[in-house]
Amino acid sequence: MNLLGHFVCAGHLSPEARLGAVLPDLVSLYRRRVRARQLVRLWTPPPPGAPRGTDGLLAGVAFHHHVDRLFHSHPAFETATAGLQAALRAASGAPGLKRFFPAHLLTEMYLDRLLMERRPARVDAFYAEVAAAGEAPGAPFVLRHPLAERAGWGAFLERFTAQRFLEDYLSDAGLVHRMNRVLVRMRQRALLPAEEVAATDFLAGQRAALGGFLAEFVPRMRTWHPPPEGGAWRATAAGPGRL
C-alpha cells in the first residue's frame, strides 16, 4: 500500500507502531539507500538505553511488511494493476516506460485518494504523526543508519509535512503530476498525455471495485496484532471494526 494506506491499516496500533508502519516508505523517500530492513537489523534487539517506544517502531515496521505481503497478492490489487498496465500499453507503445511500475504505484495512490475522500481528517492525523518522527523514538531510530544524518532527516521531514503532497492525489492532474515526478526520479520517462488520460479513466472505472476492496481489506488488517513475545503476527477473534 501507499503511505496513507499503511497509516490507516495500523490505526488500531500505538502511535509508535503507526509511525513504524509508514517508516519503510518514508525513509526511502528521504534517502533511497536507507532501508527499513537495515534499521531493523541495527535495532534488533533494542540496545540498553533505547528510547521508549523503540519496540513499537519495530512492530510497526514488521506490520508494514506483513500488510504489503497480503496486499500485493490480493486478487483485487492484481486485477487492477494488470488492467491499468493494459490500458497504458493500449494508449502508447512508446519505449522508456516499465509499465508495471506506474500501474502498481498509481493504483496505490488512487487507494489513498479514496481513503482521503472517505475521511479528510486522516490527512491531518497522518502528517502530525509523521512530524513526530523528528523526535524520539523516531529520530534516533533512523539516525542510527550510517547514511542518515540529523540535519538532513529534519529538513526532509519539514519539507514533507509542509508540502502535504498526498493531497495532490485528490485530483487527476495532481495524481499524474506526482506519478511523473516519481518516474523521472526512477529514470523512466513521464507518462504521455494519452497515457495520463487512459490511466485516470481506467481508475475512475475501478472506483467502486477499489472502494469495496478497501472496505474489506483495511478492517481485516486491524484484526492483526503482534504477540507479546514478538514473532509472527496473529489475527484476533475480534470483529473487523470500521473503515
Structure write-up:
This protein is an all-alpha fold. It has one domain. It is 65% helix and 2% strand. A two-stranded antiparallel ribbon has the order 1-2. Helix 1 (3-9) packs antiparallel against helix 2.
Rg of Cα set = 18 Å
Mean pLDDT: 93
Shape type: globular
Q: What is the quaternary state of this protein?
A: single chain
How many DSSP-defined strands? 2
Straight-line distance between termini: 15 Å
Strand arrangement within the widest β-sheet reads 1-2
Q: H/E order of the elements?
A: HHHHHHHHHHHHEE
Question: Level of helix content?
Answer: 55-70%
Largest sheet: 2 strands, antiparallel
Name the beta content range: under 5%
Which terms would index this structure?
single chain, 243 residues, mainly alpha, two-stranded antiparallel ribbon, 12 helices, 2 strands, 2% strand, globular
Short description:
It contains twelve helices and two strands.
Topology:
Elements: H1 3-9, H2 15-30, H3 36-43, H4 54-72, H5 75-91, H6 100-118, H7 121-131, H8 138-143, H9 150-163, H10 172-185, H11 193-205, H12 207-221, E1 224-225, E2 234-235
Antiparallel strand pairs: 1-2
Helix pairs in contact: 1-2, 1-6, 2-4, 5-6, 5-11, 6-10
